[in-house]
């Protein structure tokens, strides 16, 4: 009996030390380097080409207000509300004619925006688009999505109540079923919430 108990204790200690070693060996999913790697992967997949040579800038939650004031980062950060745990990675092509921003909540990617330089060669706030239509991804990868974060904006990049901006909500909700989405969250400023809720009840 004592031998069996000693063996169980040794096995428990081995499993415990193995688990601890694995936890120490694998970096936290929300550390900047891991989030940058996720953003690079998302960017490469979305563009169907490598993001080699792109410059990545990580904006941690505490630096969001300072990022809003930056002429390169601000236009991307203004599209999402600052909140605890929210961060972003902005990627700029070597020639600075393409920029992509991937947004994270507590280390989980939830959105992407992109911009291409205009005729002057400079990226302006009005050049930023929603990146890639969620409906396209719902159709391309059916049944692989759990939730969606909803927001709407004007062609100039201003946040709008749902249904008043550029998003094709009819297409989105039809494709959402294909994607397997069970829950959705409205990511919009409080003053715009009432009109957005009324819109959602109508669709």
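^ structure tokens above, recovered residues below v
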């Amino acid at each position: 009996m004592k031998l069996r108990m000693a063996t169980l204790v040794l096995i428990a200690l081995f499993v415990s030390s193995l688990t601890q070693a694995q936890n120490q060996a694998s970096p936290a999913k929300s550390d900047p380097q891991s989030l940058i790697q996720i953003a690079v992967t998302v960017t490469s997949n979305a563009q169907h080409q490598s993001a080699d040579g792109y410059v990545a800038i990580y904006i941690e939650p505490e630096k969001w207000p300072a990022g809003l004031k930056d002429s390169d980062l601000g236009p991307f950060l203004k599209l999402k509300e600052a909140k605890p745990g929210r961060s972003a990675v902005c990627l700029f092509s070597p020639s600075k004619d393409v920029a992509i921003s991937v947004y994270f909540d507590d280390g989980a990617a939830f959105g992407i925006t992109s911009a291409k330089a205009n005729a002057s060669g400079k990226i302006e706030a009005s050049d930023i688009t929603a990146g890639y239509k969620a409906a396209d991804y719902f159709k391309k990868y059916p049944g692989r999505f759990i939730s969606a974060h909803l927001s709407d904006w004007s062609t100039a990049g201003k946040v709008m109540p749902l249904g008043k901006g550029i998003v094709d909500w009819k297409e989105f909700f039809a494709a959402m079923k294909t994607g397997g989405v069970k829950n959705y969250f409205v990511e919009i400023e409080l003053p715009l919430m009432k009109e957005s809720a009324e819109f959602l009840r109508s669709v």
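The chain has a mean pLDDT of 78.
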